[in-house]
Amino acid sequence: MIIGIPKEIKNNESRVGMTPGGVFELTKKKHSVFIQSTAGEGSGFPDKLYTEVGAVIVDSIEEVYAKSDMIVKVKEPIAYEYPLIKSNQLLFTYFHFASSQTLTEAMIKSNSVCIAYETVEDEDGTLPLLTPMSEVAGRMAIQQGAKYLEKPIKGRGVLLGGVPGVPPGKVLILGAGVVGVQAAKMAAGLGAHVTIMDINMKRLRYVNDVMPSHVTTEFSSEYNIRKHIQTHDLVVGGVLVKGGKAPKLITRDMLKLMRPGTVVVDVAVDQGGCFETTKATTHEDPIYIIDDVVHYCVANMPGAVPYTSTLALTNVTLPYVLKLANTGWEAACEADATLAKGLNIVHGEIVYDGIAEAFA
Ligand SMILES: NC(=O)C1=CN([C@@H]2O[C@H](COP(=O)(O)OP(=O)(O)OC[C@H]3O[C@@H](n4cnc5c(N)ncnc54)[C@H](O)[C@@H]3O)[C@@H](O)[C@H]2O)C=CC1
Ligand SMILES: CC(=O)C(=O)O
Ligand SMILES: [Mg+2]
Fold first, then answer.
1. Cβ–Cβ under 8 Å, residues 113 and 346
2. In the UniProt record, does the keyword Oxidoreductase occur (predicted)?
3. Which ligand 1 atom is nearest residue 267's CA?
4. Which residues are known to be catalytic?
5. Most exposed of 58, 163, 231, 245 (fewest Cβ within 10 Å)?
6. Above 0.90 for ipTM, yes or no?
7. What is the mean pLDDT of the chain?
8. Could you say which DSSP state residue 281 is in?
C-alpha cells in the first residue's frame, strides 16, 4: 500500500504521524511511504532519518495526499486539507468528530474512510490509541495548572506543594480515567491535596487502592462538585463519554462559586469540554478569563512535548497501521474487533453512534 504522512498544520502541533522506526517496519513489508519534507523535524526526526529507512520525501502536503492510499497523521484534518482528501482514501488519525459538525460534514462529503484513533476500543472498554496521549495530557495538566496559578500569569498565587508551615494547594480532578489518574499522580507528587471524582465506582476503588492518602476519592455529583469548587485552587476536566460530547459538569453560574484566580484545565475540550464556558484554545494563546477564573483549554496538549508524544503515539498505532496496510481496511476491521470500533465515517455514512447522537 502507499502510505502518506503529511506535516501537521494545526497551531503549534509538532508531533508527526510516524517515527522513522515505524516507517522502517512499513518499508520492510514492501509498503511505500511518502512523507512531507520536515514533517518529523519538530519531534527530533530530520528527513534524513526517514530516507535512511526507505521513505520518499515530498515537498508539499498536496503531493502527500495525491499519492497515497492511506494517510497516517496525528490531528484531525483542518480546512486547508479538506479538498486534498481523495474519494476512498483511508484516513487514520484523531478526529474527535462529536466536537465539530464542520469537520464531520467535510469528511462525509469527502467520501473517504475515517478510522479515529480515539474510538479504537479493546474488549475491556479501554482505548489503546487514546491512552498514551491521555497519559501525556493528564501529566501536563498539572504542569500547566501550576504555572497559571502563579500571580503574574493571572492565577491565585498558590504554590501547589505549599511549604513547611503553610498548607498545600488543592486540586480537584473530574474523571478518574487515564487523564485523571495521571493528573492525580503528578499533583500528589508535588505535595498538593487532591480530590478525584468519577461516577464509576470501580475506578474510584482502584484510585483509592493505588494512591497515597492525600488523594481522596469522591463520587461525582453536582452537589459534591458545587461544594469542592469553592475550596480547590485547580480544577482538571478529564471526563469522557466515548465518542460523544463531554457532559457539562460545571455550568457558567457555578464559576461564581470559585475564588478569583482559580485555574481550570479542561483536557476534555477535544470532546467539547466539561465546563459550559470551555472554548478550544491553542498553545500560542492558551488561556482566557471568565468571572476571574483562568481557563486553559488547549485541544492538542501533547503537541507541545512532541519528543515524548510522537514516540508514545507510534508505539501504539504502528501495529494497526501495519494491519491496515497489509490487508486493506475492510479485511483488517473484519479480523480485528478492536480496530473496527475506530470506524467513524465510511463513504459518506456516520457509522459510530456517539457521533450521530452528538448532532441529533
Ligand atoms: N486536550 C488534549 O490535548 C487531550 C485530550 N484528551 C481527552 O481527555 C478526555 C479524557 O480521556 P481519558 O482519560 O483517556 O478517558 P477515560 O475513558 O480513561 O476516562 C474518562 C472517565 O470519565 C468518567 N466520567 C464520565 N462521566 C463522568 C461524570 N459525569 N463525572 C465524573 N466522571 C465521569 C468515566 O467514568 C471515566 O472513568 C477525552 O476527551 C480525551 O479525548 C486526551 C488527550 C489529549
Ligand atoms: C488525543 C488528542 O486529542 C491529542 O493527542 O491531541
Ligand atoms: Mg486533543
1. yes
2. yes
3. 1
4. 96, 270
5. 163
6. yes
7. 97
8. B
The tens digit of pLDDT for each residue in 83-138 reads: 999 999 999 999 999 999 999 999 999 999 999 999 999 999 999 999 999 999 99
Closest CA to 50 of 65, 40, 62, 60: 40
Domains of the chain, first to last: 2-120+305-358 (3.40.50.720), 131-303 (3.40.50.720)
Describe the strand order of the beta sheet including 70-72 as a list of residue ranges: 56-58, 32-36, 2-5, 70-72, 90-93, 113-116, 343-346, 349-350
Q: Which residue puts its alpha carbon closest to atom 10 of ligand 1?
A: 238
Under 8 Å between Cβ of 142 and 196? no
The Cα–Cα gap between 77 and 9 comes to: 9
pLDDT tens digits for 340-354?
999 999 999 999 999
* Cross-strand bridge partners of residue 288: 295
- Ligand 2 pocket test: pick from 301, 309, 313 the residue with the most ligand atoms within 8 Å of its Cβ: 301
φ/ψ of 97, rounded to 5, equals: -55, -40
Distance from C-alpha of 26 to C-alpha of 345, rounded to nearest angstrom = 25
Query: And the C-alpha cell for 262?
Result: 482559580
Measured between alpha carbons, how far is 12 from 39 in angstroms, rounded to an integer? 13
